[in-house]
Each structure stands twice: as C-alpha cells, then as structure tokens.
Design brief:
Oligomer: single chain
Helix content: over 70%
Structural class: mainly alpha
Distance between the termini: 53 Å
CATH architecture of one domain: Orthogonal Bundle
Number of helices: 7
Number of strands: 0
CATH class of one domain: Mainly Alpha
Length: about 130
Amino acid sequence: MSAWLFTILRNLFRSEYRKRRREVEDADGRYADSLKSHPEQPGRVEFEELRMALAKLPPDQREALILVGASGFSYEEAAAICCCAVGTIKRPRQSGRTRLADQLAIDSADDFGPDHMTRAILSAGGRG
C-alpha cells in the first residue's frame, strides 16, 4: 500500500512541477490583460464575400486585380505575364477595384480590419 501511495504522490508531484514550469506568474493580471486575439468568424465570412465578389468580376479585371493588387507585381510585370500593354492592365485594375469596392460596400480604409464594436472592445481593454 505504501509503495502504491508513494507512486501516486510522485507522479502527482511531477505533473504539478511540469505544469508550473510552463506557467507565467501574473499576480497583478497585466500579462493576461495584454493577451488579445481577434475572432476568426468575421474574417472567414469576409474572405468568402471577397471570393464571391471577385468571381462576379469580368476575367480581365479579376486577373489585373490579382496580379497587381494581391500578388504584388508591378504594372510592367503584370503586362508581361498577360502579353499585353501596360495600359491594358491599368484600366481593368482600376475599374475592377471600383466594382469590387461597390460590391463589398467599402467606402473608406476604416472599413478594413476589425469592425467598430471589436475595435471599441480592444481599445477599452488596453486602458485598464
């Protein structure tokens, strides 16, 4: 019986020791207050909306937007990829960007990132 109890206590001690090694002491709670993560659900919904809005664009506008806007190619590189003139890339990109913003109801740069409620919660959490 004593050997059995000794083994249980030893294993319990080792488990607690391993657990305490990973823990960070945060007596005043500052570290816990600094931890924030954005919820994933709105990002997934917004990505799906973007994907569907891109699918509604004409192929030339979609290709110009993806090459220049998303992939980071210059106008010259995108024109070389598409085997066309630089102006042929600039026009569809601008009109595609306008149509995409209209479809997604984007009025300003403030419409990107967390929504107004999430921004308010994150800023209120940082003040305490």
